[in-house]
Specification:
With 436 residues, the protein is mostly helical. The protein is built from 17 helices and two strands. It is globular.
Length: 436
């Protein structure tokens, strides 16, 4: 590789990680911090507290289900058409537009908030399929763990910076400017849309569309026809991808616990009566504290292996779930937030890179589409169960402690994944593809 090629390679990595910086504003302000609190206290102010929490859980589940259904098909279409960046742009713009529309949600508008959030989350989740699909093309095999971890670290920093700005907007500007706190909160949603769009531009300008490669005999197929054929073949030959399938299954199981903690944490804290400063402040702390730990897990994967590093993170999550049951004071929410920060980025980054190793590069959007299905179904089942238990029991403490089941079973399934064997299968499949 020439010096010029190496510079281009580094620029592509920098631009790719900037999309984590861009979209994480949605993950922090919209999914995790500001909107859940605004939803339960303002948009759903006409509902009982536990029902408001449940409605948020059901809304998250529906949006995740829609994204899960469409991701594999559109992923296969993008692979066949050589259009990963084009699809990323479409979903990014859908998410940006819906996020800006949240400005119009006011008191009692929980249904409108749910509908808009569903569109926004579909755009967010859909864009990540193609963003993840670019990872094996941007990063070399020996650096994929570190690049994936760097992406998550950039996301925590970027999302944290905007969340800090939003926190200042909500806590101080209303008194300073003499305006309503609700108005300032809705303006925060607009800042997320602008942030997401602007910082997506480096990836769109710098990262090259990967070379289009198809299977012999697909030359005359239409994109939808080819995608459906590929998906059918993948399902028929799923045993051929034994280790990739087991890795995705393990991820789906433990991601139920991780996703539920991320999505429902502030709503749970709001139900317990914790103040908005504690809820959003803890999320802000997590953002900045998680960034160095994401880098640490990338380093740790080199020392003890990717699977062992994931095991460690899941053990910590198990402890978090147990402690969450006994949470009564705001300082405990801060403490658990700090503990979450140590493992959140590492568990997700290494799961993404592990899956990336086990898939053929030229079918990355298709397989990351399946990865997205597993991820989104985790965000369907986890919050849905959380909402059901909360509704039936009249509270959410048992919902929190029940998450340990997902972590324990996830570890057990992951032990059955043979990474070296899976990598060889992926390389053999890639060699059978031809340049179109």
């Amino acid at each position: 590789m020439t010096i010029q090629d190496e510079k281009q390679h580094k620029r592509a990595i920098n631009a790719w990680t900037m999309y984590d910086w861009a979209n994480s504003a949605f993950a922090t302000t919209i999914m995790a911090a500001v909107l859940p609190v605004y939803y339960t206290t303002v948009a759903a102010s006409n509902l009982a507290p536990n029902l408001a929490t449940a409605r948020w859980g059901f809304t998250s589940s529906i949006s995740a289900l829609i994204a899960a259904v469409i991701s594999p098909i559109l992923g296969a279409v993008a692979d066949f058409s050589g259009a990963k960046k084009r699809f990323l742009t479409i979903f990014m713009m859908l998410g940006v537009s819906a996020t800006a529309m949240l400005y119009f949600v006011q008191s009692g508008d929980w249904l409108l908030a749910s509908i808009i959030f569903i569109f926004g989350n579909v755009g967010f989740a859909g864009s990540l399929v193609y963003y993840d699909a670019l990872l094996p093309h941007v990063a070399r095999p020996d650096e994929i763990d570190q690049v994936s971890s760097r992406g998550y670290a950039m996301g925590y920093i970027g999302g944290g910076i905007l969340l800090a700005i939003n926190l200042v907007m909500i806590m101080f500007l209303p008194k300073l400017l003499g305006v309503d706190t609700g108005l300032m909160t809705r303006l925060c949603f607009v800042t997320v849309a602008v942030w997401w769009f602007i910082f997506s531009l480096p990836l769109l300008r710098t990262v090259r569309e990967p070379e289009r490669r198809i299977k012999p005999g697909e030359e005359n197929y239409k994109p939808i026809q080819a995608s459906l054929k590929r998906l059918a073949e993948t399902f028929r030959e799923i045993r051929h991808y034994r280790d990739l399938s087991l890795a995705m299954l393990a991820f789906w199981i433990y991601a139920n616990g991780i996703g539920t903690i991320i999505v429902m944490a502030t709503a749970y804290g709001s139900e317990l009566g914790f103040g908005q400063t504690t809820l959003i402040g803890t999320l802000l702390m997590v953002q900045f504290l998680a960034a160095p730990f994401a880098f640490l897990f990338g380093w740790l994967a080199k020392r003890i292996g990717t699977k062992r590093s994931i095991y460690l993170s899941l053990c910590v999550y198990t402890v978090i779930s147990i402690l969450g049951y006994f949470m009564y004071h705001e300082w405990q929410f801060w403490a658990l937030g700090a503990l979450v920060a140590t493992v959140q980025g590492g568990s997700q980054a290494l799961s993404r890179s592990l899956i990336g190793r086990l898939m053929p590069k030229s079918k990355s959007a298709e397989f990351y589409g399946f990865f997205s299905v597993f991820e989104k179904f985790a965000n369907i089942l986890g919050p849905f169960i959380f909402g059901v238990v909360s509704t039936v029991m009249g509270g959410s403490r048992l919902s929190i402690v029940s998450l340990i089941v997902f972590f324990i079973i996830g570890i057990a399934v992951l032990t059955r994944v043979n990474v070296e064997r899976g990598v060889q299968v992926a390389l053999m499949e890639e060699q059978e593809m031809i340049t179109a």
